[in-house]
Amino acid sequence: MVTAQAFVAEHTIISHPALVPEIALHLASEITPIWQATEAWLDARGIAPPFWAFAWPGSIALARLILDGAVAVAGLRVLDFAAGCGLAGIAASQAGAALVEACEIDPLAVAAMELNAAHNGVQLHPLLQDMVGEPCRWDVILAGDVCYEAPMARHITPWLRAMAGQGARVLMADPGRAYFSSERVREVGRMAVPTTRELEDRDAREVVIVEMLP
């Protein structure tokens, strides 16, 4: 049986995401093959679509801010929430975070994060877990591009706000998804991120980065 890591390695190439040349990731080179391949994997194992195979605009923006020092993480405990390929978490580790955990509910995403962390020579602790409901143990929580579906947004937003109430700095980066709420947030930046028309309906998206308020 093909392992999750072997599947990820076979269906991706090492690429540098837009605006973040410091980091190399296992990413899909063409959208159709990875989606078709993952459909077969999904049929056999009930696994989600391959969101982990792409560097999404929200995570790119967070990673860029972290590497530029605009978001301080050195010496802090960080959670990359719904981390996908682990881009933001890897950036946090490169920037000197004391601990970086990265959670996902897709085992292929966890496998991708393990490979990506190893390729970049950083410490990242991938968790195959829905963290919603967990008590706060982090100083900074990063959430990039997580409000693309209504059920997802309803599930995660109250918990993220609760984490802010328990002392974490919760940063969300959203590229204009329909279910992102601008209520009780403080904008900390905006960034134009190049995209591909294989994934988006435009060549670039403006990502707004906000800090959630309790």
Description of the molecule:
With 214 residues, the chain is α/β, with parallel strands linked by helices. The chain contains six helices and nine strands. It has a seven-stranded mixed β-sheet, sandwiched between helices. Strands 1-2 form a two-stranded antiparallel sheet. Helix 1 packs across helix 5 (107-120) and helix 3 (57-67) runs parallel beside helix 4 (87-94).
Highlighted features:
single chain, 214 residues, alpha/beta, 7-stranded mixed sheet
The gist of it:
The chain is an alpha/beta fold and 214 residues long. Helix content is 33%, strand content 24%.
Number of helical stretches of at least 4 residues: 6
Kindly state the percentage of residues in helix.
25-40%
State the total count of DSSP E strands. Answer: 9
Estimated share of beta-strand residues: 15-25%
Write down the Rg.
16 Å
Q: What structural category characterises the helix and strand content? A: alpha/beta
